[in-house]
C-alpha cells in the first residue's frame, strides 16, 4: 500500500482553522483511520500533542514528506464518535462536495456560541370556564369582533398560549390582549424560563388512527433494512403529516431523536399545534424570527437531551442530537432547501449524508417530488411510496384549461377570461372565496417606448425597472429608484407606457368587474411591513375578503376551507425563464395552486389560463398527473443533458472589470481542458448569466457536466486550490454550485 496522508483540522476553537495540516498516516493505522475521526497529532513549536479532526485522506501531498509528522493515535473512531465529531465530519463532507472553506462549512453546521441569557416570558392564560368562553365566542361572532374571536378560540382550545405566538401567528395587537385582560377573560403571566418559542402541555390528546394506506407506508419505511432513504409521493391532503408523526413516535419510543424540515412558509399555526398536541414538551421549533441566541438555546436543549424532536427550516438539519434516528423533509421539492450562500448545500443530500454518519433514516415527502428525488427512487436508491387519495375523502378539484389565444380571437382582451369571469360570479353569489394567482416573478409592469422600443433599465443591473403605483420605478435587484419619466429618455417620444401585467393591474381589473367584492392583494408592495404577509392571510382566513390576488406567495401551505375557486392567470410565463428547471417549477406551482381549491367540505374548481395550453407541464398539472409529467420532463433532461440525467456544477464568477473577469473565467476553462479527466466531462461557457450585471458587478458562468460526481468534485478541488493561490483571482469572486 502506498503512503497515505491525512489532512487534519487542529483544534476547532481557533480562528485559524481555515487551513488543514497534513500528517503521515502510519502503515498500521491505514485501515483504521476514517474521515471524521478524532486523532492526536504533534502540533506547533514544542510538538505538543493536540486533538485534531480528520477531514481528508489522500494518496498525494504537496508538502515535503521529510518534514511531515505522523498521526499519533486515533482517539475516537467514527463508529464511536460523539455527536459533535459527526457534525464536523459532515462539515468536511459539505466542504468537499459543495466547495467552501472549512470554516464556512463549520460555521454552517455548528452555530457560534453566544452567552445564554435567561429571559422573561409572557404567557396568556384563559380565566373563563369552557362554557363561559363559548358563550363569549358567540358574542364576538355576533359583534364581528374577529381579533378577539381568534384569540379566544385559540385559548379555548389550548388554555394557555405564549404571548409571542398570539401576536405573531395569530396577528393580534397588544391593545386587544390588554382589553381582554381588563375584562377578566384572560391574564398574562411572566415566567422565567429557558427560552422556548413554544411551550405547551398537550401530550396524549392525540387520537387519529392511520388508515390502511398510511399504515402500509409507515410499516414499509420502518421495517426497511435496505434503504436509508424513502420518498413519499402523496397528493396534498393524503395524510403525509400523519405518517411523519407516527414514524417520529416510533423513533422517540426507541430513545432516538427526529428532525423535521419544512419550508418556512408552511410553518402555519395549525401545523405547529398539530405537532404540539401529539408530542407536547419534547418538541422544539426554530424559525427565522428567532434571534441567534434563541436558536442557540434550542440547539442547546437538543444537546442536553431536553427535547427529542426539532422542527424547522433548512438549518434545523444541524440540530446537535446525539442519537438521531430520523430526518423528515416535507415538501422536498422546495427550492428553499438549497442554500444560497457558501457552502451552497442542498438539505436533501446533506440530510442523507448526515443520516449515513448517524445510522438514521430519511423520509422525503412531496405531492410533486423533485425530478432528482423521483429519479433516484426509480433507480432503486430510495424506496418509493405513493398515496393517491385525500385522507378525509374530499375530491381533487375540477380543472379547466382556457386557451387565451382563442379568447383574443373572440375579442376578449382582458386578463380575466370569459370562463373565469362566469365562475367568479357564481362563487361570489354563493358567498365562497377564491384566489387569483399570477405566475410571475415581476410584481409590476415595465416601462417601454412605443416609438423606438426602448425599455427603461436599471443603470446598475441588466434588468428593466418595475413601475409601481406611487409613480416611481424600482429595481428589484439592487433597490435603485427613479421617478417615472414622461417622455422616452432615448427618443423623446411621449408614447411611453407600462407593459406587462402585475398584481396591481389585476386588482384594478377585478375591482372594476366586481365592485362589491372584497379584494385583498398580496405582493412585494403589500407585504413590506413586518408580518404584512401573515396579516393578509389571516384576514383572508377570517373571510374578511372574497378574493385574494397574489404571486407565488399565496400558493403554498395554507389551508382555506372556504376557497372553492382558484384562477391561474397566464400559466405559461415562468416556462420561458432561461432555466432548465422552468418546466418543473411551473408544474409544481400549478399543481400546488390547484391543490388550494376545495380543501374543505365543498368541492373546488380550478381555471388555468394559458397561451400554450397544449404544453405538457400545463396539461399534466391540470390532470394532477405527476407520473405523466415526470416521463416527459425526464426524457427532455436526458436528451439535453441536464440533471438528474447528469451531474452539473456551475462556476459563478463576478467582478467589476468585465474584461478581467472574462480572462479569469477563460483560463479556468483552459485548465479543465488540460486535465486528464477532461474526456469525462463537458464544459460550457463562460457565458453571461441570464442577468449579466447586478449592482455594477458583471456576472459570468461556466457549466461543467459529467456522469461521475467524484470527477466533478476532484476538478472543483483542483480549481479551488488554483484560485486561492493565484494573484489574478483576487479581484474576482468565483463560487461553485453543485446542482443536486
Ligand atoms: P398532507 O400532509 O399529505 O397534506 P395531512 O396529514 O395534513 O396531509 O392530512 C390532511 C387532513 O386529513 C388533515 O386534516 C388530517 O388531520 C386528516 N387526516 C390525515 N390522516 C387521517 C386519518 N387516518 N384519519 C382521519 N383524518 C386524517
Ligand atoms: Zn423612444
Ligand atoms: Zn438595479
Automatic annotation (TrEMBL):
- InterPro entries, per this entry? DEAD/DEAH_box_helicase_dom (IPR011545), Helicase_ATP-bd (IPR014001), Helicase_C-like (IPR001650), P-loop_NTPase (IPR027417), PriA (IPR005259), PriA_3primeBD (IPR041222), PriA_3primeBD_sf (IPR042115), PriA_C (IPR041236)
EC number(s)?
5.6.2.4
Q: What class of enzyme is it?
A: isomerase
Under catalytic activity, the entry for this protein gives: ATP + H2O = ADP + phosphate + H(+); Couples ATP hydrolysis with the unwinding of duplex DNA by translocating in the 3'-5' direction
Binding positions for Zn(2+) 1 per the UniProt entry: 449, 452, 488, 491
- Report the superkingdom from the record: Bacteria
The Helicase ATP-binding domain sits at: 221-387
Q: Does the keyword Cell inner membrane apply?
A: no
Essential cofactor(s): Zn(2+)
Comment on bound cofactor: Binds 2 zinc ions per subunit.
**Per UniProt, which keywords does this protein have?**
ATP-binding, DNA replication, DNA-binding, Helicase, Hydrolase, Isomerase, Metal-binding, Nucleotide-binding, Primosome, Zinc
Q: Note the PANTHER family from the entry.
A: PRIMOSOMAL PROTEIN N
* Subunit-level organization: Component of the replication restart primosome.
Biological role stated in the UniProt entry? Initiates the restart of stalled replication forks, which reloads the replicative helicase on sites other than the origin of replication. Recognizes and binds to abandoned replication forks and remodels them to uncover a helicase loading site. Promotes assembly of the primosome at these replication forks.
Query: Which family, according to the similarity comment?
Result: Belongs to the helicase family. PriA subfamily.
Q: What is this protein called?
A: Replication restart protein PriA
Species in which this protein is naturally found:
Muricoprocola aceti
Q: Which gene encodes it?
A: priA
Amino acid at each position: 500500500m502506498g503512503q497515505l496522508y491525512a489532512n487534519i483540522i487542529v483544534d476547532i476553537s481557533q480562528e485559524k482553522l481555515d487551513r488543514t495540516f497534513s500528517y503521515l498516516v502510519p502503515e498500521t493505522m491505514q485501515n483504521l483511520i476514517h474521515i471524521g475521526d478524532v486523532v492526536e497529532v504533534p502540533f506547533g513549536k514544542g510538538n505538543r500533542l493536540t486533538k485534531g479532526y480528520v477531514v481528508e485522506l489522500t494518496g498525494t501531498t504537496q508538502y515535503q514528506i521529510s518534514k511531515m509528522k505522523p498521526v499519533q493515535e486515533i482517539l475516537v473512531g467514527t463508529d464511536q464518535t460523539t455527536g459533535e465529531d459527526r457534525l464536523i465530519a459532515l462539515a468536511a463532507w459539505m466542504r468537499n462536495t459543495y466547495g467552501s472553506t472549512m470554516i464556512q462549512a463549520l460555521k454552517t453546521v455548528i452555530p457560534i456560541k453566544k452567552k445564554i441569557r435567561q429571559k422573561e416570558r409572557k404567557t396568556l392564560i384563559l380565566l373563563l370556564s369552557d362554557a363561559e368562553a363559548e358563550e363569549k365566542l358567540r358574542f364576538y361572532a355576533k359583534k364581528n369582533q374577529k381579533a378577539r374571536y381568534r384569540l379566544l378560540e385559540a385559548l379555548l382550545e389550548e388554555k394557555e398560549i405564549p404571548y409571542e405566538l398570539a401576536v405573531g401567528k395569530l396577528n393580534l395587537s397588544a391593545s386587544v390582549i390588554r382589553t381582554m385582560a381588563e375584562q377578566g377573560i384572560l391574564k398574562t403571566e411572566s415566567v422565567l424560563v429557558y427560552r422556548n418559542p413554544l411551550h405547551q402541555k398537550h401530550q396524549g390528546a392525540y387520537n387519529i388512527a392511520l388508515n390502511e394506506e398510511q399504515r402500509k407506508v409507515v410499516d414499509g419505511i420502518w421495517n426497511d433494512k435496505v434503504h436509508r432513504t424513502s420518498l413519499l409521493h402523496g397528493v396534498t391532503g393524503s395524510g403525509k403529516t400523519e405518517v411523519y408523526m407516527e414514524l417520529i413516535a416510533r423513533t422517540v419510543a426507541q430513545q432516538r431523536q427526529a428532525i423535521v424540515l419544512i419550508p418556512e412558509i408552511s410553518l402555519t399555526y395549525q401545523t405547529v399545534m398539530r405537532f404540539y398536541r401529539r408530542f407536547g414538551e419534547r418538541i422544539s421549533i426554530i424559525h427565522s424570527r428567532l434571534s441567534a441566541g434563541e436558536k442557540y438555546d434550542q440547539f442547546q436543549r437538543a444537546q442536553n437531551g431536553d427535547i427529542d424532536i426539532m422542527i424547522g427550516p433548512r438549518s434545523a438539519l444541524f440540530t446537535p442530537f446525539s442519537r438521531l434516528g430520523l430526518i423528515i423533509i416535507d415538501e422536498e421539492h422546495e427550492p428553499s432547501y438549497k442554500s444560497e450562500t457558501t457552502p451552497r448545500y442542498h438539505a436533501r443530500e446533506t440530510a442523507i449524508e448526515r443520516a449515513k454518519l448517524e445510522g438514521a433514516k430519511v423520509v422525503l415527502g412531496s405531492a410533486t417530488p423533485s425530478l432528482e428525488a423521483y429519479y433516484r427512487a426509480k433507480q432503486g436508491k430510495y424506496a418509493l411510496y405513493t398515496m393517491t387519495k385525500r385522507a378525509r375523502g374530499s375530491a381533487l378539484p375540477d380543472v379547466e384549461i382556457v386557451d387565451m389565444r382563442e379568447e383574443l380571437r373572440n375579442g376578449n382582451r382582458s386578463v380575466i377570461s370569459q370562463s373565469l369571469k362566469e365562475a367568479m360570479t357564481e362563487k361570489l353569489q354563493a358567498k365562497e372565496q377564491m384566489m387569483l394567482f399570477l405566475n410571475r416573478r415581476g410584481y409590476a409592469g415595465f416601462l417601454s417606448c412605443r416609438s423606438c422600443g426602448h425599455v427603461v433599465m436599471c443603470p446598475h443591473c441588466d434588468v428593466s425597472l418595475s413601475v409601481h403605483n406611487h409613480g416611481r420605478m424600482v429595481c428589484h435587484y439592487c433597490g435603485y429608484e427613479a421617478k417615472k419619466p414622461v417622455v422616452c429618455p432615448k427618443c423623446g417620444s411621449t408614447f411611453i407606457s407600462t407593459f406587462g401585467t402585475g398584481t396591481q393591474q389585476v386588482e384594478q381589473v377585478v375591482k372594476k368587474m366586481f365592485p362589491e367584492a372584497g379584494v385583498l392583494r398580496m405582493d412585494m408592495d403589500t407585504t413590506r411591513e413586518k408580518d404584512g404577509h401573515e396579516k393578509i392571510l389571516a384576514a383572508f382566513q377570517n373571510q374578511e375578503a372574497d378574493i385574494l390576488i397574489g404571486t407565488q406567495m399565496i400558493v403554498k401551505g395554507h389551508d382555506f376551507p372556504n376557497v372553492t375557486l382558484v384562477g391561474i392567470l397566464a400559466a405559461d410565463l415562468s416556462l420561458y425563464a432561461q432555466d432548465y428547471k422552468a418546466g418543473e417549477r411551473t408544474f409544481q406551482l400549478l399543481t400546488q395552486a390547484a391543490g388550494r381549491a376545495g380543501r374543505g367540505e365543498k368541492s373546488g374548481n380550478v381555471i388555468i389560463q394559458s397561451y400554450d395550453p397544449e404544453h405538457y407541464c400545463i396539461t399534466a398539472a391540470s390532470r394532477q398527473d405527476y407520473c405523466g409529467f415526470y416521463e416527459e420532463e425526464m426524457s427532455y433532461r436526458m436528451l439535453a443533458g441536464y440533471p438528474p440525467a447528469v451531474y452539473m456544477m456551475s462556476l459563478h464568477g463576478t467582478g467589476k472589470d468585465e474584461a478581467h473577469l472574462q480572462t479569469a473565467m477563460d483560463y479556468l476553462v483552459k485548465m479543465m481542458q488540460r486535465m486528464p479527466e477532461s474526456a469525462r466531462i463537458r464544459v460550457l461557457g463562460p457565458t453571461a448569466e441570464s442577468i449579466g450585471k447586478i449592482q455594477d458587478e458583471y456576472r459570468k458562468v461556466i457549466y461543467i457536466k459529467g456522469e461521475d460526481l467524484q470527477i466533478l468534485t476532484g476538478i472543483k478541488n483542483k480549481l479551488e486550490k488554483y484560485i486561492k493561490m493565484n494573484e489574478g483571482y483576487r479581484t474576482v469572486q468565483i463560487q461553485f454550485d453543485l446542482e443536486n
